[in-house]
Amino acid sequence: MLGRFNNAAKRKIHSLQEFFVLGGKAIGFAFSRPFYRSDLIQQMDSIGVQSLPIVLLTGFFTGMVLALQSSVQLKTFGATMYIGRLVAASMIRELGPVLAGLMVAGRVGSGIAAQIGSMRVTEQIDALNTLGTDPIRKLVTPRVLAALIMVPTLTVINDFAGILGGNVIASAYVGIPTSLYWRTVWEQIAGGGFIFKYVPNDFVHGLVKPFVFGGIISLVGCHFGLKTTGGTEGVGVATTRTVVTASILILVVDYFITQLLLAFLPT
Question: Among 118, 267, 121, 96, which residue's Cα sits nearest to residue 195?
């Protein structure tokens, strides 16, 4: 019993070591030749552009629900005019980055694991090695860079869609003028303080997280994809592990990033 536990712990530690080595190599290859630019653009389209509809829908309806729920509570205190502040703070600081990260983890993370896993079980990755092409440079680096660029971009769009959804409810259901709603949104952003006098603290909070989430999603997908064994059944297992692991890591890492940001960028 103790021996099995010991072996399982060793395998987990070894897998964790492989994960960080993979991340280090993927980032290192971004600064050396050959660099597969066309693969990067293709992955940016796959990760960013093709994820746009689901991110827009998620953000818009989350903002609507947030405004609807908060209007009920704020009405008790006669403070419904602050709906814009509440929706903006929630979307930019927390819900926008986390929801965008989870949506991308479900759609893109599983896709990355399935693509690379299929290449592994059909020995296409062995063929790349035979041809002298490093599979990490060719397959992992473009996906990691694309995720680091596109997940923050999707988060900004998700934030705006959520605030817009809140505006629809505030205007149509609560009766708050659109101009007042957007003024309170700006008051919330400005009230959080600025870095270097011009960059709102809320934007820093909202962009640091998705940058980290993008790295997590892409690296987890590539890691499980490269380790795939057992044919098509193994590909299914790799995609499931990717979605579960990336989603849990996003929620756990989100807490620690929030703690750090609140410590170094207090509002």
Answer: 267
